[in-house]
Fold each of these.
Amino acid sequence: MVSIQTPAAQKTGRQYLTQSSSATERRSPNQELLPLTARANDHDRLEIGGCDVVTLVEQFGSPLYIVDEDTLREGARQYRDLFARYYPGQSQVLYASKAWNCLAICAIVGQENLGIDVVSGGELYTALEAGLPPEKMYLHGNNKSKEELQMAVASGCTVVADNWQDLHQLVAIAKETPDSAIRIMLRFTPGIECHTHEYIRTGHLDSKFGFDPDQIEEVFAFVQQHPILTCIGLHAHIGSQIFERQPHRDLAGVMVQWLKQAAAYQLPITELNVGGGLGIRYTESDDPPSIEEWVKGVSAAIIEACESQQVALPKLLCEPGRSLIGPACVTAYTLGAQKQVPGIRTYLSVDGGMSDNPRPITYQSVYRAVVANRMSAPLTETVTIAGKHCESGDIVIHQASLPKTESGDILVVMTTGAYNYSMASNYNRVPRPAAVLVNDGIANIILARETYEDLIRQDRLPERLAHLS
C-alpha cells in the first residue's frame, strides 16, 4: 500500500487517498483513513463506493453517515479467511455490534458468515430481526436485566455470564423454563494492562467487567453443581483501540491456563473468546497492526499455549467491532459560519458535531478531514472545526489542515463508523443524521434522518399543561 503524496508545500486532500502497491495486495481496512473505494473523481470531488459525496449530500442532506459496503465486507472476509489460514482448529469471528448496530450492518456481517456480539436486549432484537442465527449470537453485559436474559434464552443465544447475579438469574430462569437449553460462557478479568484510553480498558483488574481471576475455582464449582447450565466457553477482553501485540499474546497464555483448570471440573468447554480490540488509523501517525498481523499473532499464541499446557485446541472466537465498521464510514457535513479570532484561531462551523460524534468531547479523540469538493486544492489553512451545539467543548477537530473554504463546502470527517452513530444523541434536540450504504454507484438509506416529529414522538403532555392560557 502506498499513499498518493504531494510535496509538503502542495499537500492536498488527495494525500489521504491510498492505492495498492500491487494488483494482488489486500489492503487492511483498519490501516486506512478513508474507505477502500475512496477516490477523487474527474470533478475533483471525493467519491466513495462509486458515489460522489457532494451529490449524496445534495440528495440525502447533511450531516450524513456514508458507509462503504466493500470496506466492511473486506474487513469481515480478512478476519474470517485469515483465521482459516493461520489457526488449524475451528474458529468463529463475531462482530462486536455495539460499535454500530442496525439492521443493514447486522445483515452484512451475517452474510459474511460472522456471528454477532450484543450487549443489550435492543442489540439482540435488532440482530434477530436482521435474520442472524441465534446460535452465532452472544449476549454480554455487566448488569443484564432478567428480561434481557429471558429474551436471550428464549432466542437460543449464548449468554456470557459476567458476574454472580448473571449465574443466579440464569439458574432461576432455567428452572422456570426446564425445556430451554441455556448455553453460557464465563467472562473473567485477565489483569492485563494496555496503553489505551482509561475508559476503554477492560482487561485490568480494576474493571466493572467479569469475574476476578481469584474467583475462578469458585465459579467453576458453581457451574459444575448446576448442570442445568451448559458452559461452552471462556471469555476475556483486554480493551479497545490497541496497537500493541504483546497483550494479546499474554492473554492467550492466561486463557489456556483457565481452560486447563476447567478440565478438573469436567465442564464441556470447547470455546475460547479472546475479545477484540485491534486499533484503527484515525491520523497519519497511527500505525496499528494489520488484520493479518493480529490474526496471525493471536493464532500462534493460542497454539503455543495449548501445546505448552498439553490442551487440545479450542474453537477460537474473537470480537472485532471498531476495526470492521470504523474505517468503512465517513461523515459528511456542510460548512456554515466562520469566525476569526485574530492571532489565535479560525473557527469553521459544521451542521453537526457532538450529537452525531460524541467521541472528541468524551475521549478527546482526534480525527482528520477533507473538503469533498476541493480534493486538489492545496492545504493552506489550519482551522478549528466547531460543532453547532451550545457547548464550548463541541469541537470536532482542533487543528484541521484544509484548503481555503467557503460556506456551503462539504467537509468529510474520516473513520467515523465506530461509536459515532451508536453513541449519537439528540442533544439540543437535534435530529440524528441519516446513514446511506454505498456500493457500485448505488446509495441506499439504511437509517432515515430523524424529523422534529420524531423528537417529540415519545413526549407526553399532561392534560393540565395542554392549555397555556
Amino acid sequence: MYLLELAFDGSPDRLAVRPAHRERLRVLHEAGRVVMAGPYSDETGALLLFDVTAEEFEAIIDDDPYYRAPGVTIVRRQEWVPLFR
C-alpha cells in the first residue's frame, strides 16, 4: 500500500481540475485501488491511500494533472505496511 499526502496553499486554481481528479479517484476506488481519500477538514491538504504496486502508484500520480496543479504540493509519497485490514 502507498499513501500520498498533499498540501494546498489556498490557490483556487486547483479547483478547476478537481472534478476530473475526483472522478479518477472514484473509478480507482471502485476498482479497489484507492482504499480511502479525502481532504483535511481545514482544506490545507489531503490524504490518499492506494492499494497498488509501486509502478501503479507512480503511474496514477503521473496520469493525474491534479497533482501538478497550481496550489497542490505533494508532501509525502510513502509505502505503508498496515498491521490490520
